[in-house]
Q: What sequence folds into this?
């Protein structure tokens, strides 16, 4: 897969399945189809087990004290949320069959090896793993394009991760991300997208955990070339990610808004558009507003700058004042240079 070529075709929109399958492979396949129908370019999953993420321990370090998953134990949460590895080749085949890209976020070396055996074309690095430089180095060693989220990272941490990938010369894109679930608009700081593009000289997008599509569309207007959104069939299907995921109709509306935003952004142009041409005549110009006899000098009583735009441009007003009418000029006549002269 050539990531950069894909990004040249327009905003690359990723539907993140995550735990929204709620433990049902048929629902997972349905999500793939719904994502395709909703306009997504890609479906993403996550490849881990509870044991590859953490240990089964219930002391205070492993219990979540606040946020969306308050009261959960890390190990128990990952048991609920993970996508069984035996499903994943089947899910990729389903995506391939209907023509939607499919990739995954690996969380340790064993998951990277598993995905390599599946023939994965590119990889995602999650925000929480951005500081795991040995894992990033191992993923990058496979030579595949990488999309890397940067939530919670300071600029030095991002630079270290970018440098680790660049040792292997992979195609790389970064995602601005607010790693809160759901994210709050006031804390998203989307202008950072422009700055990240300038500093790291790679495509930058948004991993968007906010509700609604305002953040995603705004990000595109600010230069984001990738949008990632959690995707579910319905938020009533309970799972660890459902509360901040988009339903198909919402996702479809977001995609339409993004595509309209791309069209509106267009390119740098100071030309009059075809639709504007019909309105040029409603600009102001110089008109005769009082009958003028041949040989009379023009005064402010004779001419004014008014709409429509058939006469001389307003910038010539001072120049033509005091000139002599070379013919009779009737009120309502657009003034032209061949009607007057310095006689």
A:
């Amino acid at each position: 897969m050539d990531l950069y070529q894909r990004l040249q075709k327009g905003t690359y929109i990723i539907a993140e399945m995550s735990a929204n399958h709620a433990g049902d492979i048929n629902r997972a396949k349905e999500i793939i189809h719904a994502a395709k129908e909703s306009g997504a370019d890609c479906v993403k999953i996550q490849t881990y087990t509870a044991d590859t993420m953490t240990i089964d321990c219930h002391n205070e370090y492993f219990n979540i004290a606040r946020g969306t998953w308050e009261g959960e134990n890390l190990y128990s949460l990952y048991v609920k949320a993970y996508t069984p590895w035996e499903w994943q080749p089947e899910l990729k085949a389903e995506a391939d069959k209907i023509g939607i890209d499919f990739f995954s976020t690996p969380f340790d070396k064993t998951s990277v090896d598993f995905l390599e055996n599946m023939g994965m074309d590119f990889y995602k690095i999650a925000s929480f793993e951005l500081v795991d430089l040995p894992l990033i180095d191992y993923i990058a060693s496979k030579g595949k394009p990488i999309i890397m989220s940067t939530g919670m990272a300071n600029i030095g941490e991002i630079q270290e991760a970018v440098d680790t990938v660049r040792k292997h010369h992979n195609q790389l894109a970064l995602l601005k991300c607010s790693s809160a679930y759901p994210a709050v608009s006031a804390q998203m700081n989307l202008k950072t997208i422009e700055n990240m593009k300038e500093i790291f000289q790679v495509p930058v997008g948004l991993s968007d955990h906010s509700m609604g599509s305002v953040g995603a569309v705004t990000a595109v207007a600010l230069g984001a070339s990738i949008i990632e959104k959690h995707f579910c069939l319905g938020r009533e299907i309970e799972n660890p990610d459902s509360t901040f995921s988009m339903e198909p109709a919402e996702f479809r509306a977001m995609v339409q808004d993004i595509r309209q935003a791309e069209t509106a952004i267009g390119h740098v142009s100071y030309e009059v558009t075809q639709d504007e041409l019909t309105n040029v005549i409603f600009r102001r110009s110089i008109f005769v507003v009082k009958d003028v006899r041949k040989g009379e000098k023009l005064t402010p009583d004779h001419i004014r700058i008014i709409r429509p735009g058939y006469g001389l441009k307003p910038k010539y007003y001072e120049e033509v004042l005091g000139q002599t009418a070379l013919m009779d000029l009737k009120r309502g006549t657009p003034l032209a240079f061949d009607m007057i002269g310095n006689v």
